[in-house]
Predict the structure.
Amino acid sequence: MIFDCLMDRCSFTFLIRHPCRLMRLQAANERGFLRLRDKIIISATIAATIFIIGFAAGCGQIKNTQPPGGQNMIAKAQEATPKTMDVAVYYVKKTNKDFCLVRESHTVAYTRRVARAALEELINGQPFTENAFTVLPRETRIRGISINNGLASVDFSSEVLKAEPESGVGALGIQGIVNTLTEFPTIEQVAFKVDGTLDQQAREWWGNGSLSETPYKRDLSNVLEPAVWITMPVKEELVDIPMKVAGYTRIVDAPINLRIVTGSGVKLAEGCARASADNPGRGEFSTYLKFQRPSVDSGYLEVFHCGSEKKCKELNKVRIPIKFNQTAATS
């Protein structure tokens, strides 16, 4: 029966699948019981078996082999892509006497279309400042935003014209939109359209007729809150040494105090800066702080005013979480 099988065209497959039969034939060969033809078939079968086993093992190794650090690189790439980002939006606020603008920092889903994201948050977001509100109707759609040579052209849907703000509020609302968009360094001026045009109805937007003055520029004179805000560093930013600190303050006749601390409160550096009086009612400040690189990875930047008394009361305090760059060289 064994020798009949050897003559069959399926001999190789049969012997590979039944290694015990192959061993019996090999033993018979060693005792000299097989013909030359049978010996050739057995030798070829053994060689084929070794080749198939080696090939299968090699395929398994290729399948499971990955470039050095491949998984780590993928994980780091995923971590490098942020899921959220912060945008600054300007709402109108009703005070006891009048109306003003307030600046708020809102967290939104990450996108490369940052100007649109900020404007959509101004329309749909919920202000957390008491008595603050958006002038833009909730059903307003952004038909398009184009940015060219520092000019942002915003095209709103006709729903934007449905708002009926109180006297003076419309102008503040428009300025809030302009200030929101000019937070981005690529935008210096803003122009508006409604449904792709700027007809008479659009020019009389919100009853003040001020759209005829477009394009608009940034104006912080009516932004009364907060007293201090920081533009650099941003929240959770990886900072180097020295660290640049920049922002705006309404207190232009007194220095603003700066401090870097660890999460446990250990002071790493402190300093002060004075704001320029270039903008009516609000000045811009910028300076650098040097510090010894700490052993911890994170800490805080604290910015505040001391007031007029001898003992500092730390008024209008702002606290920004930061991360220390442990690999950069100290300059």
Notes: DSSP finds eight helices and 16 strands in the chain. The chain has three domains: 2-64, 83-224, 226-324. Residues 83-224 form one domain.
